[in-house]
Fold this sequence. Notes:
The protein is built from 7 helices and no strands. The protein is mainly α. The protein folds into 3 domains: 66 residues, no CATH class; 36 residues, no CATH class; 29 residues, no CATH class.
Amino acid sequence: xxxxxxxxxxxxxxxxxxxxxxxxxxxxxxxxxxxxxxxxxxxxxxxxxxxxxxxxxxxxxxxxxxxxxxxxxxxxxxxxxxxxxxxxxxxxxxxxxxxxxxxxxxxxxxxxxxxxxxxxxxxxxxxxxxxxxxxxxxxxxxxxxxxx
Length: 148
């Protein structure tokens, strides 16, 4: 290990056993203010003290275990369902559509505008009138007043 990249120049000649007892300012980038904060908050004076700090050990253990931990099955299932729902809602996010430079989805001209014909109500009414010999039907299918 190249110790010169992690300790200050004045400590390059020391072995690891000696470095453990050196002040934390021997570490490259550690300022006097940071060293003072460690001393005041945690009683840390040496590199060895810093290495033995309980919260540092706990944090390292959590990070190590997190990298080995599998994601819960329930979370994976929920994420898959959300991804599928988004894909159905926004099909233009399909990689094929993105690669082909499609930026929006247009409604084919043969489709009825929903803002003026909700669920083809006008078309259905016209088909009903035609099927009944052009007699108009009211709501619920009954004949309108004045119709025979």
